[in-house]
## 1
Amino acid sequence: KKVQNLSYYLYLLGHEKHLSSNEVNVEKIKLFDLKDLDKATDHFNVNRILGQGGQGIVHKGMLADGKIVAVKKFKVINEGKIEQFINEVIILSQINHRNVLKLLCCCLEKEFSLLVYEFISNGTLSQYLDDQNEEFPPTWDMPLRIAKEVAGALFYLRSSTSLPIYHKDIKSTNILLDDKYRTKVADFGTSRTVVIDQTHLTTTLVQGTFGYLDPEYFHTCQFAENSDVYSFGVVLVELLTGEKVVSSTTTQEVKRFSHIFHLFNGEK
């Protein structure tokens, strides 16, 4: 229960992180032509691929002004993907926080939809956990700072945007690290806004990642504020142990941590 309490503590502690973010107005999202992004990524060269997942492929690119960016190209264009694309643009246009990945521009064509983000050089927290090195030693200071920054971003999403935002997919692969290992929470494709004082969001389809998914949400289809906090708690376990909860090489000890989270949730 101490791990669960610590995750809530860091979540609440995050309110210190969002104060300065309100001083700057949120910029409007720019629109780009496909030909501009095709040129920026060298025709979506496979050698520029940064990563890929269920939503699409992310390429490294350089805009005409020399700015280095990450370009996410959605794999398939259908009604669901377009809705997810528009949802992410709407959500990110409301956000201005130093620990949330910044959306710079977008492109919606007949065959393709693309989102262009600031480029974050050190990959994901998941990749770091897979390959820790001497440059980033596993001291307590670094994991706790990362946890506080993620908590600060979650607190900001819940309390400082025009409408509260549920991220709905907090996990180590959606937390990026810049050149100074500062965090950027990413991937708002499944995120949703809720009216103030709304306690939960009822869905017809459970979305999320096994291992990070709040079991109560899985069983009831009701996503609440503490569902994001639950997922954050799983990430916190990964930071404290130095291993991923969901992995083909996960040790039995870390698997037990995941089981403990399920037991805690059952005691509510």
Note: The longest strand covers residues 56-62.
## 2
Amino acid sequence: MAADDERLVAGTSQPGRPRTDLFDRPAEVAGLTDDQAAAVAEARRLTAALGELHYDGTGLACIAGIGAAEAARRLEATVKVVDREEFLDQIDPFDQQSLAFVGVTDVPGGCVVTQPWGYMPTTPGATRRLSAGTLCYAMFANPKSGNQGVIVRDGQTVGGDHPGGTPWGDAGPVEVL
């Protein structure tokens, strides 16, 4: 008996539809839908936007519809423009005072608050302020217990996840991608 590459598994995913740029696909077999291909392209764009990233211990929050200046205002932060590399060379990531420092940058569609050495962008206080009137996804790459994510809309936590974990059984292709 052959594998059924059109059988639905993991919700609405089909295992027989790999990216068409990786494999030759018979003409009669469906490839990714336009929505799925768009999700793959968006994932690549967002990964590139983050650039080279030292992952373990990093906290970040992605906020839709506001810029870096507004994020700084919401966090009641003192803004100081610094040379990133010089700053990272000077800061002691193990000093508790370093938790007071975050980086904020504009990205298409909003901004990202990041802390390469800590969890502060993911705290309830930060995400509540940052998500006022909009949507925020925050994630801490906890080197001890794994990645921890939270989805906050207009100050209210509406979901959480463990990125990179197994998808829920009813997760569709968009959620899996």
Note: The beta strands are 59-64, 103-107, 110-115, 135-142, 146-153, 156-161.
## 3
Amino acid sequence: MGHGAKFDQNAIINKMSDVFALRRSRGANEQKENELKQKDISLATKLYKQLSHHQTACMNLTREQNFFDNPKSLLQPIRGILLEGPPGTGKTMIAKAIANECKCSFLNVKRELLQHSLLGESEKAMAALFQVARAMQPSIIFIDEIDTLFRSRSESMHEVSSRVLGIVLSQIEGLETNNSERITVIAATNHYSSLDPAISRRLPLKLHVPLERLDILKKLLKEEKFDFSKVDFDKIVSSTNQFSGADLKELCKMALHNPIVESTDQKTEPRPLRTEDFTSNVNSIKPINKELQQEQMLRNFWNSVNK
């Protein structure tokens, strides 16, 4: 698009609404239900602490500092972020929170429409996405479950996905050579090992998003009128390494039933909950994320990747 060309932002957004979920994170018409602040996401605090070591990721979007004016400098903006973690950890919400924090446009790619059956349509759609991102910058392009689109070459990758991957790689490479563009690609994956190494290299900032079980437990039990003074939540957390939010909810339900079942007099208050009410039921629940390794192993891995 030439510098003199007139850009009708609303027209393009409306035209492409069947391909991309586009949302402006700034302006008077911002929908309140889409506002995502750091305090609204239990994982965001820890994630922002990790991002604080990589402030250039956000500085490129906000342009609070002019650190990136010299194209020959070793200090260059981060163009790609990869969020890895099990399902249900809020990776999409975190990406939206970053966009909101930086007052960026948020372009959420609909994965199924990038796997178009007509020859060349998926590549055109991805190229158009980056064109819209440039017109709406500062902007964040979010690709969820990126491993399902761009699998490792050692595994089977659909021919269309392979062509789209080429477009994405060339577009990100173009961003890396043009410091004036305020665009960041954020991708999310549940299976890092399945991701094509080429796209992984273009997403240099890798952040592990764990299941924050302590926060989830406290939120689940917040409205319950039981005495929790004898409950060792840290012990429960350590015994539920691979539990998702849904698993923890089931565990809490089972634990809450114990004092009621044991109570013989309906007029008296149930006894206080004990740690054993939870831990004794752990083996009764088959974790949804059974294929995941222990979280400590994941943390060690991601720490080594980001050194």
Note: The chain has 13 helices and six strands.
## 4
Amino acid sequence: MRRALVLIHIFAAAHAWHIACRRTHTPRMDTSEDLLHTLHSARPLAFSVSLLSSIRDVRKCEWDALAVQDESPFAEWDWLYSLESSGCACAETGWTPYHIVVRQDETHRMVAVLPMYLKSHSMGEFTADAPWADAAQQRGIRYYPKLLCAIPFTPVQGARVLLSHELPAGVRAQLLLLVAKYLRTLAQQNGISSVHLNFCTDEEVAAFTQAGFLHQQSVQYRWMNEDDSSEAEAEYSVGTSGKRPYADFNAFLAGFRSKRRTQILRERRIVAESGVKMRVLTGEQVRPELMSLIFHIYKRTVDRNVWGRQYLNEQFFTMLGQRFQHRMHVVLAMRSGEIVAATCNILKDGVLYGRYWGSLQDSRFLHFEACYYTPLENVVKQGWKRFEPGAGTPQSRLWRGFKAVNTHSVHYFCDNELQNTISARLQAHRQRLQGKIEPPVGRSLHGRQTVLRSSSVLAHGKRGPVLPRWDEQS
């Protein structure tokens, strides 16, 4: 663990600010006079910044006090610990942990954390930065290593800078800006090409673009438990806010055109007539030995897929069955009492996240039943908010009632020429997306929609991390 003490002195009475930074192995944090207007104490504030070489270097209760406030479950300590301890996200696989912890010195209270990694490749990120690596190479710039603030192998939107809920809104915005400037300086002073926050929040986009980061938009497909029919909206509009959730799965099907509704019913019938019965397990029903079996089913499917890449191992799956049991939502496909397919989903605060799928047999429409229909049916039954199935084919999801939504990432490149080149590319990409992600109206929501395809991620660079020198700065 490397630690830097960064003292930010703010004197409200004098309406001036001053930063005193001790000699450190990491760059100091910058600040802004605007922060004065959000603070009500004339006493100086001091923050310390720590770079952690392992999630084990911070107490679980402290990290989760910030992480549990985010809607996404994947920034929680147990998830990151399982990835790291199982050997899935570690230096040997090109994911060297450099998590950031920000504390207020006077109270030693943690006010912000960032899961961050020094990456020696771009695999497992689900963003298409291969053209950026090519552009860097053409300019003689070493693209790797790079700094990545993200959840390994998890393309789910959520907060990347986890902030204390006790911070006022104005302080949150300023602290995000300070962190953005700190990351930018960290890369500049240590010969790192770039900094990336993948699948971040709108709040983070606003702060980081103010600090000079570039904004990238992508597309994902989510299913919302919102009955868009005019009858449901009229019935639900009196004295309520938002849209009414579906009464049952049939109410969801009623929003489709006849041909598409008939096709979904036919697909489900074919699965049932093949002798497959679906079973949902949650919480304590999901034992580590079951997760071990699910891993082998998952691995078989990955190995058979020409584009498949196995990022996760059996130990990670069994650790989820031990440490993340309270959030597990597993769908099993059973034939003659034997498991023939499974999906591993994660649940938090009324949002179901589809993660891993595998099958031992080739069975028509079984993938759609296990990965879409049974989870959707359970979301409706439980009254949950939405279902995010993860990466997958856009067309198959739009036809089954999923909606296209924008996701966001921000990026900073230390080389000015490279920054300008990629800025122009991202601006052109946003213009192509503009107007194509629109909410459908009424019963047309399950009709024809524009399909936006994302390019695949290509790996670059040699295997294994190239550690930068954390040279002493004054």
Note: The longest strand covers residues 214-224.
